[in-house]
Amino acid sequence: MTKACKGCGSETRKLPHPGPRCGQCHRAVKASRKDAAHELYVLKTYGLKAGQYQALYEAQGGVCYICQRATGKTKKLAVDHDHVTGYVRGLLCKPCNSILAQVRDDKEAAHRIVNYLYSPPAFGVVGKVKP
Predict the structure, then answer these.
(1) What is the pTM of this model?
(2) In CATH, what class is 23-121?
(3) Which residues are CB-neighbours of 103 under 8 A, at least 6 positions away?
(4) Domain ranges in the chain?
């Protein structure tokens, strides 16, 4: 006697012991629970209501706002917020969010970083030297 999958009703797919669902349905339920848990976390932590994280993600083109490389497919992008006001600023990957933490949201330090990248002080002192 074969058992039908609780999700899709299929009797041909193997049901992993002791689960009532086939592998495909089990993964779908697991993903939906993970998404619901993340939505609850951003609501409690940052006050983002249902769908607002996804709307922000789509508004940013599905990538980290700073580096424009991380997509959040493997690990969701972090909700960046101002620690003084508490306002949400955007979604960032962990390395970019860590950079902001390192400069402690100091705008002048951020300007110095940009200036450093465009005009390194070593170029003026020793010229362009390669190792």
Answers:
(1) 0.82
(2) alpha beta
(3) 109, 110, 113
(4) 23-121
